[in-house]
Specification:
Helix content: 40-55%
Mean pLDDT: 90
CATH topology of the largest domain: Carbamate kinase
CATH superfamily of the largest domain: Acetylglutamate kinase-like
Shape: globular
Largest sheet: 8 strands, mixed
CATH architecture of the largest domain: 3-Layer(aba) Sandwich
Strand order of the largest sheet: 9-12-6-5-15-17-18-16
Low-confidence stretches: none
Strand content: 15-25%
Structural class: alpha/beta
Radius of gyration: 24 Å
Distance between the termini: 35 Å
């Protein structure tokens, strides 16, 4: 977050990054890649100021002061600066150069204690957030989609929690490609996205499907905003690299811009994400919606109490794919390993479950798999399959 920093502040920050003091270099070495798995930025613009180090996940500022900060005038400026930063909800800790040089371990311990305290406070005050992925088969069925969106809108309330909705493309893109005589190629269930297919996918996913969902949510009283990964630099990806298969313009995710989505949520907007990302070099990429849901849930788990929900046409994870009554109510890591070893998990469900446990191991509270139209009951634990680490 830059809190309204202007272009001159950005320019000055860039200059300062190239002239770090030796004390700043010592601290940066320890916090750049760290055990807390937090992202710190150095010489970061905030409003009218440039702070030495900033972690947006915890809204933490770390300042390293030279001797000039002992001057009375500079002290007054520092006090005004600190009050301004605190008014933005930021936490500030300061150290002198001499402390870093002579008592580096004590400085790092103080940083560690502050981070742990802020993390505890963050966990205690987290609001619930539902990150929901809606399956393509539901999108293809107007009646089921309408029912799902009506149910989804009812759970996005101040009392129940906020929501993020990720959708796939259904069969519309395939049908349109056939009408336009654009050949479609699939390898191991994955679409090869050539240049013409990418155009169709972008038009269908980020265009018609996304805006149709947004319009229906608005009709149900849910203030939704449709985005692709390129909007607001929301999801950065790279073109998939494979040893033997050229997947074309298929994208694998590098980073989800959690701050962007947090800003939307704080304005009581419900993001609806289309599975189109970008590489920050002007290239759009077609990206798996299940993976977008997982990565979005992981990124936002630092700010919210996240439940990731995979909603589709099935009742949950089934012991017998042909028996809707064979839903497994709860799966933990040990049970999942047992089910896979015994061959009791339908092969098409394994990627979803693998994604589920990856999300759980990265801060997501719970993953739920079940029927889209029953989303309220899924959240209450009355339907579907709950995936936990317990």
């Amino acid at each position: 977050m830059y809190y309204g920093a202007g272009p001159l502040i950005f320019q000055r920050a860039e200059e300062l990054r190239n002239t770090m003091t030796s004390a700043e270099k010592i601290i940066w070495k320890h916090i750049h890649i760290n055990e807390w798995k937090l992202k710190f930025r150095r010489q970061h613009p905030i409003s009218n100021y440039i702070v030495d180090f900033y972690c947006h996940q915890l809204k933490l500022v770390i300042e390293i002061d030279g001797d000039i900060h002992d001057l009375e005038e500079v002290k007054r400026n520092d006090k005004e600066r600190e009050e301004a930063l605190k008014s933005l909800g930021l936490h500030i800790i300061r150290f002198k150069n001499e402390e870093v040089y002579k008592k580096a371990n004590a400085v790092l311990q103080k940083i560690d204690e502050t981070i742990q305290q802020l993390q505890r406070s963050s966990r205690e005050n987290k609001k619930p957030l539902y990150v929901v992925k809606i399956g393509g088969n539901i999108i293809d069925d107007d009646s089921k989609l309408k029912s799902f969106l009506k149910s989804f809108a009812t759970i996005i309330t101040p009392l129940q929690g906020m929501g993020v909705l990720i959708h796939g493309g259904g069969k519309l893109a395939t049908r349109l490609a056939e009408q336009m005589n654009v050949p479609q190629q699939m390898v191991d269930g994955r679409r090869i996205t050539d240049a013409e297919t990418l155009k169709i996918a972008t038009m269908v996913y980020a265009g018609y499907i996304n805006k149709n969902i947004v319009a229906q949510l608005q009709a149900n009283g849910c203030n939704a905003v449709g985005v692709s990964g390129a909007d607001g630099n929301a999801i950065l990806a790279h073109k998939r690299v494979h040893a033997t298969i050229n997947y074309g313009f298929a994208g694998d995710i590098d980073e989800v811009n959690a701050s962007f989505f947090q800003n939307l949520l704080q304005q009581n907007l419900t993001p609806v994400i289309a599975p189109i990302t970008h590489d920050q070099k002007g290239q759009l990429l077609n990206t798996n919606a299940d993976t977008i849901a997982q990565e979005t849930a992981k990124a936002l788990s630092s700010f919210y109490d996240v439940q990731l929900i995979y909603s589709f046409e099935k009742d949950g994870v089934l012991l017998d794919v042909n028996d809707a009554a064979s839903v497994i109510k709860k799966i933990n890591a040990d049970y999942y390993k047992e089910l896979k070893t015994e061959g009791k998990i339908f092969a098409g469900m394994i990627p979803k479950l693998d994604n589920a446990f990856t999300a759980l191991n990265s801060g997501v509270k719970k993953v739920i798999i079940g029927k889209a139209e029953e989303i309220g009951q899924l959240i209450q634990g009355e339907k579907g399959t709950s995936i936990t680490n317990e």
